[in-house]
Every structure is written in C-alpha cells, then in structure tokens.
Amino acid sequence: MSKIQEHWAKLTNEQWQHLAEQYLLEIRENEGKEYEEGTHKWGEIVVNLDFWSPPELLWKFILLTVSLAETDEQLGIIAAGEIEHLLGRAGDDFIGLVEQEAKVNPKFARALTGCYQFQMSNEVWKRVQKIQSAVENKLL
Q1: What are the tens digits of pLDDT across the range 88-112?
Q2: 80: which DSSP letter?
Q3: DSSP state of 33
Q4: 36 Cβ contact partners less than 8 Å away, ≥ 6 residues apart
Q5: Range of the domain at 92
Q6: pTM higher than 0.85, yes or no?
Q7: Cβ–Cβ contacts within 10 Å for residue 62, how many?
Q8: Model confidence over 4-31: pLDDT tens digits?
C-alpha cells in the first residue's frame, strides 16, 4: 500500500465526517460561482481521495457524503466526481453494490442521474444508465 493510501486508511470516523461536512459546505458556498483558484481546498482534498484512495474507502466516502448532501448541486458534484471515479476505476467490483444501494436509497439513486460514462466500461455504463432511466421514470 502506498503512503497516500495508508493516509486514507488511517482516517478515523470523525475525520471522515469532518471531510464530508467541509466538502459539502464548500460546494454549497460556491454554488453558482465561477471556479476561482484557491477557493476549493476541500474539493482538492477529495480529488486526491478520488484518485489515490483504495476503492473501498472511496465507496465509504460516497455513501457518507450522499447521506449528508442537502442539494441537487451537491449530489451532482458527488456523481461527477466520486461516483464516476469509483466506477471508472473499479466499476466491475462495485456496480453490484451501486445497484443494491440505488434500490434502497432514493437519494443515492438520484445522485446517479448526474453521472456520465467517464472511464467506465461499456457494461458498467449500461447498468448505470438502467438505474438512471428507472429514476427518471420514477421507478426507483
């Protein structure tokens, strides 16, 4: 395990909670504003998480941030960032969990509507699109 992966693995539940809360607060504070260098400290930390954490920890962070998200803007950023990265990196291993979570968690299912294919395999993307269609047709 690399040093950066070890860093993510050592975070306490309180630290995960703090990271999620600060990330979502930063999103809310920047809604509708143009990107300005230096105004997205927590977002930059989360991008590091997206690329360098073990997928299991990224999944944990996704579930936590979705549970705390209060706006569609926040859900959309989680979808376009964390969810797309997870499914692009480890989609074959996680798509089953994503499908299960979407069935029992309407907020998570709604977040998935903000995903694009990014680096997902065609098979994983088809399964995400199936969830998106179900949400849009109010079947989930």
Answers
A1: 999 999 999 999 999 999 999 999 9
A2: I
A3: S
A4: none
A5: 3-136
A6: yes
A7: 25
A8: 888 899 999 999 999 999 999 999 998 8
